[in-house]
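Structure tokens please, single chain.
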Amino acid sequence: MRKIVWLLFLSMLLLFSVSLPAWADGTTVGPVVNVADPNNINVDDEFTVDVKVNNVEGLAGVGMDILFDSNVLEVLDANDKKPGIQIMDGNVFDMDYFLPAVNKVINNSIQYSAMVFSGDPENDPAPLFNGTGILCSIKFKAIASGTCNIEFDPNSITNPGGFSLGGSGGALIQAKPFSATVTVPGPTVEKKIEVTLTNDQAVNTQRPLGITASAKEDSQSVSVTWDVKIKNETGTVIKTFPSSVGTTFNETWTPTITEIPADLPITKGYQVEVKATYADNGSVTKTVDFTLSNYDLVIKKVEYAGSKINVTVENLAQETKNNVDCILQISKADGTLVNLEFKPADIAPGEKTIEFSPVSLSAGNYKAEVFLWDLATWQTLSSPKEINFTV
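Here you go.
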């Protein structure tokens, strides 16, 4: 009996392929991915793809060959009681008349055929399907990153074009196929660059700015294309370094007299803009500030610590600066001066901390301002620095 039924099924499939087509307006067939974002599926995710038929009339049987990328997706078996790997039957056919024929997965190909059949077609005809429904369902598991097309096999021998929809009397139902695409992104790689500047507190014609940068993907050093610019305080590019390729970038920049007049020791806010372009054309840009100044002394830090105020001064020159007058001025929130203190100091190259013990201050909010002067010549030796503190 099985042999007879099988022969009937084969003959019906043959009729599908040679009979005149039965036209159905707007009939479409293809895979539908049941996830919120088919372009963002993670490795090890499991999801279902339904092969749907839309707006069909008089459907009696189906045959299809579906291709997918087996390097990206794996078909999960729908029936572990049978040998091999099977997919799930759909909901379009009445199961009392349902006759499965082919259901197997071979490498990157899914082959599936089924129909409705009645042993007594005159008195008990098999019901045909009308409307929209699921022909079959495939459960996939993402096994590797990549992009995978799920589509009918255009070179199928058993189903020309990759699918066949059979109607009453073996007529071929014409339908427009569609496909689906899923993407399994690779692991996220963090692109980052590190930028280090030297002499960045007081760059001038005698103290060039040193620029060092390195590029990584996660913790791995990688080669990138470096594009580095220097901008002045208005954002205008005043220096563009030639593009270079490598894991690191190393350059120096010396301002000209037009950028910082020798007789005008005033600091300016400048920036280094470092852009690293990676092999995948992704890029990271980092901007670092530096100071352009003719001063050799820099007030790096002012701290209020209990009853004391500590001032950290850095000497960027190669020689000791003698007879430097460090001046501390403290005022109330309303501007009333409450403390003025002078401390002479010799400041060798490097950093030096100068400690002040101001007069006893009552509870309240204060501003401390620090200045470096050469009182013998009445010349300022550094930009001032201030902090607000509360007693």
